Amino acid sequence: MTLSFRHxxxxxxxxxxxxxxxxxxxxxxxxxxxxLFAALRFTLATVPAIFLLPRPKxxxxxLAAYGALVGVGQFSLLYLAMGSRISPGLxxxxxxxxxxxxxxxxxxxxxxxxxxxxxxxxxxxACGIGVIASHTDGSxxxxxxxxxxxxxxxxxxxxxxxxxxxxxNMLAYVVWxxxxxxxxxxxxxxAIEGPARIGEAxxxxxxxxxxxxxxxxxxxxxxxxxxxSWLLSRHPAATVxxxxxxxxxxxxxxxxxxxxxxxxxxxxxxAALVIxxxxxxLLWPRLRAAWRLRSA
Length: 296
Known about the structure:
12 helices; mainly alpha; globular
């Protein structure tokens, strides 16, 4: 089953927003400290949408766990890393390792066995991360790389929690879990970044900086997750999910075009290894099934 042209364009719009969003994050971090920026994102993702969408029929524990892992864990670490420790293009690539963390967590929690093609995919992605680690410089540090990998682990853990919310409106799920993340992030911002830095950020924030916040909440969170969930509800996951392979492509190309991030050969090689690993993991079962069907 393939996507219709209109649904393909919708999926392409989502991955383009998710990929280019790393540039928007970089712009936002020029005005707001990382934890405050994350708090503003999830506050705006909560209000006013929470008054329009009924609470999904899952327990508060599930919502709190998802909000803590994805909202607080993933995005606080990602924003802190992108503040000065990793370039936006590489961040968009490394965060996709959440696919492999999700695979390993599923193996641990449900007893799933990792197949040979998945070990190959993991090895290729690990080699790509190794290439990045061996070329850290002023724009990307080992600490920044480790923080984004930990953010990917938080995202993967959130995926495991989210899978338990069966049959719910995922947009409402994201909005209500954002209501858990926002106050925690704001408290962390006050405790770590301090009232003085927060006040200075608010007093100097430009219209473009607030636009970055609105984009984070509206385009990236509400539209992105809403449209993606809508597509997944109408098509098999194997048809929709491979489109996500384009996220780091958009991320790295937009960072190069809009921020002047260099694309040396080692960075392209790392991207090729990670994206190839992702592609093998996502596409190999589908290709194998098609081959068996043709051979039958």
